[in-house]
């Protein structure tokens, strides 16, 4: 058993995972770009299925849902006018759910996300989506800057193999590392089954 502790533990700021009945669910970049091609993610189908379970529960308990969509360049990744930039059909906003469009990994940067969350009135956020090491990491870090308590759903996120000067870093290693970093000082980790 390791004696290592997270920054949250060392500072006495550990918080339990949020409940969908008293939080806002944020789904980041559940877009077709990640299903195939050079940005296809390892485990993306399983993660999207888990996001679907979270959405179903959130709708049942009247939890506000915010969908984030990344806008790329015309003809490039996340083409805002092309199919690859579209949200996957099974996770489209419904009813009074909110859509925020972003151009940078941080979903707060240059968008009205913070103002929307203030209007929704929840301190607790439940975050899921893609990619673990990019928009998830960057946005979760920002939640701390804005004073939110973040629960990050480990098995409702995914990433891809990354090149490095030392060879390929597998998606599994990238994801596990990013989740450990987030759990150290930025978010409480949870699994889908614990929230639904």
TrEMBL record:
Keyword Nucleotide-binding (UniProt): no
GO molecular function, one term: hydrolase activity
Lineage: superkingdom: Bacteria
InterPro entries xref list: Isochorismatase-like_dom, Isochorismatase-like_hydrls, Isochorismatase-like_sf
Signal peptide segment: none
Protein name per Swiss-Prot or TrEMBL: Isochorismatase famly protein
Record's keyword terms, sorted: Hydrolase
Keyword Ribonucleoprotein part of the UniProt annotation: no
Start and end residues of each Isochorismatase-like domain: 24-190
């Amino acid at each position: 058993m390791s004696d290592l502790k997270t920054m949250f533990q060392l500072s006495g700021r550990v918080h339990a995972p949020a409940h969908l009945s008293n939080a806002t669910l944020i789904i980041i970049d559940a877009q077709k770009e990640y299903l195939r091609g050079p940005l296809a993610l390892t485990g993306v189908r399983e993660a999207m299925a888990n996001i679907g379970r979270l959405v179903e529960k959130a709708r049942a308990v009247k939890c506000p849902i915010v969908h984030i969509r990344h806008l790329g360049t015309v003809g490039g990744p996340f083409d805002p006018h092309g199919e690859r930039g579209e949200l996957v059909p099974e996770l489209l906003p419904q009813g009074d759910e909110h859509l925020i469009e972003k151009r940078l990994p941080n979903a707060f940067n240059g968008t009205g996300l913070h103002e929307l969350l203030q209007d929704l009135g929840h301190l607790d956020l439940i975050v899921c989506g893609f990619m673990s090491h990019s928009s998830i990491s960057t946005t979760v870090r920002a939640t701390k800057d804005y004073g939110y308590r973040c629960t990050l759903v480990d098995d409702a996120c995914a990433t891809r193999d990354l090149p490095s000067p030392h060879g390929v870093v597998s998606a599994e290693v990238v994801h596990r590392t990013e989740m450990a970093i987030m759990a150290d000082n930025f978010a409480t980790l949870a699994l889908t089954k614990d929230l639904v």
